[in-house]
Every structure is written in C-alpha cells, then in structure tokens.
What does this fold into?
Amino acid sequence: MKTILSEQQMALSIQRLAHQMLENNKDMANTVIIGLQPRGIFLSDRIVAALKEIVPSHPFHYGKLDITFYRDDVRKTLHIANETDIPFSIEGKSVILVDDVLYTGRTIRAALDALLDFGRPSKVSLCVLIDRRFSRELPIQPDYAGKAIDTIFTDKVKVNWKEKDEKDEVVLV
Amino acid sequence: MKLSTKHLLGIKDLHKEDIQLILSTAGQFKEVLQRPVKKVPSLRDVTIVNLFYENSTRTRMSFELAERRLSADVLNFTASSSSAAKGETLLDTVNNILSMKVDLVVMRHSASGAPHFLAKHIPAAIVNAGDGINEHPTQALLDAFSMQEKTGRIEGLKVAIIGDIMHSRVALSNMYLLKKMGAEIMVVGPPTLIPKYLEEALGVRVTYNVQEALQWCDVANVLRIQLERQNQPLFSSLREYNLAYGIKQKMLDKLNKEIVIMHPGPINRGVELDSDVADGSHSIILNQVENGVAVRMAALYLLAGRSDEN
It folds into this structure.
C-alpha cells in the first residue's frame, strides 16, 4: 500500500480546488456545486465548507446527484441507489460536478445524462480529487484536479475520509 | 445487495431485507418522478411483456408507466383480444412471446398459482400482478411504502384490514408483508368473509366489529367487495354490508385520534367506503396510486438487474 496524499496534502489540495473555483467563476451566485453519490459527497462537502470559509457572505447552491439509474452496466452488476437532492433549478447555471476519483470516465458520462434531465445548464465542469489519467475509456477530462496520477488498471485507488473511514488519505492498494 | 429471489411471485417468498431494499429503492424512484424528465435509461436493453388474463386499469397502467419510465420496451397482451380466446394454453402463449426475446413477464391471472406454474417452466423473470385469490405483491409493497411515507414507520404500526378478507389477494399479501416488517394486524369483516383459523395461521387478530378496529388502528386499509369472486351470496345485500361494515365519516369523527384511510381501488362508493371518507383528509388513496409507479419501478429495476446472473 502506497500513500498518494497524506491528510495534510489532502487538506491543501481541497483548499486549492476551492480557490481555483472562485478564480474561474467570477459569478459564484450563478454557479452550483453538485457532488456525486456516494463517495463524491465527502469531497463536495469539504469544498463547500472551504468556499464558505473563504467567502462567508456568499450563498452557494449545493446539491447531490445519484447516477445509479443512468449507469451502463445495470445488467452486469446491480448498484443500490442513493439519495438525489437538487432543491434548485440548474437551468442556465454553471454546474461544477464533484467526484473523488476520475478513472474510466463512465461515471461522469452517466452523471452528465442524469444532470441534463434536470434542465439545461449554461456550462458543466468537472472537479476531482484524483485524476487517474491514461485510464480513460471516454473522452472526458477534469477542469479541476487535486492530483493526477499514472496507474495501470490492476491498481486500486482508495480515497479515505474521516467521516467514514476514520482517516483522511489517498492510497494505492 | 440484491433481491434473494429471481421472481416476484408473492410477499410470502421475500425476506425482510428484500422488502426493505424494494421500499428504499422506490424512495429514490419517487424522487426521479418529481424531476422535469421523469425517465431514466436503466432498463433500455430490457423487454417486458404485460400479460393480463384478467381485467385491470390501475395495476396495468401503473406497470406500463413504470416500465416506460425505466426505458424498457413494453409489449401488452390482453387475453380477451388474443389467441388465448382461440384456445391456446398459457404455456404456449408465453413460450411464443418469449421466443421474441422478452426478458421479463408481468402477469395477472384469475387462477391462483398461475405465475408460480410459469416460473417453473420458463427462463424469464416473472412479476405477479395478482393471481386469483392468492397474492398481489406489488400492491402490498406500495401500501407499505404509502404507510411508511405517511406515518414514518411500519414496525409497530397498527393496521386494520377491513372487508372481504377471504377473496382478497391484497389482504393476503398485506398480511404477509406487515407481519414480516413487524406491524400489528387486525382483520375485520363479516364472519362469512373471514377464513377460519386465520388467527392461528397468520398471527393476526380477528374482529367482526368495525368501530372496535377503527379505535384500535393507526391505519385502516379498506378492501373492495369482490362480487366477481363470489359464487354464492356471503352477505345479504350491499346495503346491509354498508350499514354494518362500510366506513362512514361519523365513525371517524367518533374516534379520539386521527387514522389513515387506504383503499387499493377500485372503490365501490357507498358500499365499503362512503364518498366523504374516500375523498376526505384522512384518505391517502391517490397517494397510493402515485406511489405504485415508483414501487413497481423499484421491483422491475431490482429484478432486471439480477436477471443476467446465474
């Protein structure tokens, strides 16, 4: 097992991602952050908390999206659905999708389909903590990445979160 | 996690975990149904046939809508307008349909056990949409979903099932489900419409007094009087049934609490349920219909998702 990001590095990366979002989105009132269920939520929670700390006066629209019913492997493995909670319109908004690891890109493909069923955003961008570049099966790239790593398909990247796994860290298993 | 059964033939075969999984998945589908686009692509490579050997409006439309909302391809079959009327056997009909590459069969039949028979002879997964006087599992699931949604729980809930217990598949499926989920059950009806030894067989309470049951329960599930399943008169007249067992607003006013009124439809207004009760604030009858689509989506999704294994 090899550590890719320590607790401290993870905190710094999340801070940086929050700053980059503010930098790239002048009009944060028109920007919404949507975390992907189940494990992208841990990252999006942290990013939203960081954003609120940097600009406390700003209201952030924050939702959670479950993509289970949009997966392309329903007949292979059955996935259990999680809660979707998007209590606002995404019509004309700039949406930032947040997930923990970007690997083949299939989850994001499903997320785009799911998202577009809620309306027509003016723009969709992607934020991930770990970008497993060179492993893509679809033409999807992140706009914000905590760390890009080179892995082969037999590697398994695990992002651990204090809330669930007792410790913040990213490891290569 | 997945369902422990390949088919949904009855609540009797399900484990408590299966029921919980269907109900929680139904909750996610209910959210999908509130979206601007109320459709997901989950089952776009699945073909489903609705095989209805018995009349139905609600169940059939609800299944069809659930299937379409899941992006499945849907075939409809009605016995009265098909080769069944020319004397084709059930198994022949189904095998002919399956040779057109159908993955799932939703079936309603007037003979109890018809879907169980099919399950033994065909490879496709089967969903029972009501078989004779045996079971109607998706109705019990949507009833449970509606109870949970309205009262926040099923375990410990006191449910009165009122009416024609003998001929009602809804009653039997409801009793199996509520027992498995830890609710308390009381059945009420004329002695001629309650099977003997029901207390001993299923562990439910039996009473012949409606007011007593209403006072006891949190939820009253009122059943339709099924005139089509009665070969002999088991009560003297509909008017007398209404006088003794019909639910009237003044009965609810007498209670020192609020109870929830449910009915699987279609209602015989003025027989088992008076109009002011059916349309009143206690009634969640239309919510049941709404929830039916989400619950059926959940059942179909969970069954189709596991059908390629084994």
Summary: The two ends of chain A are 5 Å apart (CA to CA). The first strand of chain A starts at residue 2 and ends at 5. The longest helix of chain A spans residues 7-24.
